[in-house]
Design goal:
Helix 2 runs antiparallel to helix 8, helix 3 packs parallel to helix 8 and helix 9 runs parallel beside helix 12. The protein has two domains: 236 residues, Aspartate Aminotransferase, domain 2 (3-Layer(aba) Sandwich); 118 residues, Aspartate Aminotransferase, domain 1 (Alpha-Beta Complex), CATH 3.90.1150.10. The chain has a seven-stranded mixed β-sheet with strand order 1-9-8-5-4-2-3, sandwiched between helices. It has a three-stranded antiparallel β-sheet with strand order 7-6-12, with no helix packed on it. Helix content is 37%, strand content 15%. By secondary structure, the protein is an alpha/beta fold. The chain has twelve helices and 14 strands. The radius of gyration is 20 Å and the shape is globular. The longest helix is centred in the C-terminal third of the chain and has 18 residues. Bound molecules: pyridoxal-5'-phosphate. Pyridoxal-5'-phosphate binds next to helix 4 and helix 5.
Length: 363
């Protein structure tokens, strides 16, 4: 059986270091906002080449706090890709703002910059590009549009730790980069965790307050804040894994390379382009008979996933919130299939998947 993911196996290389880190934190008696968080924040800022990094409780919280930092007027509009993971849209809704969906480019699965301008209105305040599956959006074009219309950019970098566009880190093009360290992400903790990166010291200060009850000094509250802190135990684990993030990405890129070289052209493969350094949080292919293909692979001992089965505009929770037709998004959701591409998978595993994909065509 080739599993799609196995978090135990994925974390096995870090077992001893994690145990030591856990013991140290336990013995320190300091569990919330201490040295582990400070250290991880400066390490992740350095890794992403951002001036500031602020740890928060999750990727969704990172997006919510980033939006809150601007105190946008309720009812303001935020542009977001129509095929994103639901969290990006939820963050907008939770801030009393209106999500305005823009269809993705069918080749990159990322927001189509050519379709942004037609969705900008007088109420538009921000763009939230999502670097889906570990591939950057076309950030040069998006930055240009944002400048022209005076819009903020909050990048959803929850799937793109270490991914580059024209040599620059995702999460550093806009006002904020929002990261998730959910266990399955390329940089994953052993529980929920997230962070924001920014180059603006005032915004960084606001996030420091927002994540901690709106306070700088204990029991003195400057603004209406949240409790959204990264805890010491997770920060300790993240510092350890961050040292291997390049290695994790390198491994995933190697597996992706094998897929790209060996999967028959009857399947639609991710695009490869020199502007992008992709980190393959997800390696997806597309096929008209996706569901039959998925069962065939499973019958042959290969587990896959679908990211994602339902287009946000078709989600029950989004009725009355999202309006309009999103045929490109729905096409992707109906045909996409995610193949095994974890840190613990071997080249042999991936070759077996390729062979099985070939056999499906001859059925
Ligand atoms: C995982 C993810 C999030 C949310 O992160 P959590 O840590 O689970 O809250 C947001 N956006 C995208 C694109 C994601 O993949």
């Amino acid at each position: 059986m080739i599993e799609y993911e196995n978090l135990g196996k994925l974390n096995n290389p870090f077992f001893e270091e994690y145990q030591n880190s856990f013991s140290q934190t336990l013995q320190s008696g300091w569990y919330v906002l201490g040295n582990n968080v400070k250290n991880f924040e400066s390490e992740f800022a350095e890794y992403t080449k951002s001036k500031f990094c602020i740890g928060v409780a999750s990727g969704l919280d990172a997006l919510v706090l980033a939006l809150r930092a601007f105190s946008f007027k309720p009812g303001s509009e935020v542009i977001v890709p129509s095929n994103t993971y639901i969290a990006t849209i939820l963050s907008i809704v939770q801030c009393g703002l209106v999500p305005v969906l823009v269809e993705p480019d069918i080749l990159t699965y990322n927001i189509d910059p050519n379709k942004i301008e037609e969705k900008i209105s007088k109420k538009t305040v921000a763009i939230m590009p999502v670097h889906l599956y570990g591939k950057s959006c076309k950030m040069d074009l998006i930055v240009e549009i944002a400048k022209q219309y005076g819009l903020k950019i909050i990048e959803d970098a929850a799937q793109s730790h270490g991914a580059l566009f024209k040599g620059k880190m995702t999460g550093t093009f806009g006002e904020f980069g929002a990261f998730s360290f959910y266990p399955t992400k390329n940089l994953g903790a052993l529980g929920d965790a997230g962070a924001l990166t920014t180059g603006d010291s005032d915004l960084a200060k606001t996030i420091l307050r927002l994540r901690n009850y709106g306070s700088d000094v204990k029991y003195y509250n400057e603004i209406v804040g949240f409790n959204s802190r990264l805890d010491e135990i997770q920060a300790g684990f993240l510092s350890i894994k961050l040292k291997s993030l390049d290695d994790i990405n390198k491994h995933k890129r190697k597996l992706a390379g094998i897929y790209l070289a060996n999967i028959p052209s009857d399947y639609i493969l991710p695009v490869v382009d020199e502007d992008y350094f992709d980190v393959y949080h997800i390696f997806n292919i597309r096929h008209e008979q996706r569901d039959e293909l998925r069962s065939f692979l499973l019958d042959n001992g290969i587990k896959t996933e679908i990211h994602y089965p339902v287009s946000p505009n078709k989600q029950k929770a989004m009725q009355g919130i999202i309006f309009g037709e999103y045929p490109i998004s729905e096409e992707i959701h109906a045909t996409t299939l995610s193949l095994p591409v974890s840190y613990f998978h071997t080249e042999d595993d991936v070759m077996k998947v390729c062979e099985c994909l070939e056999r499906f065509l001859k059925k």
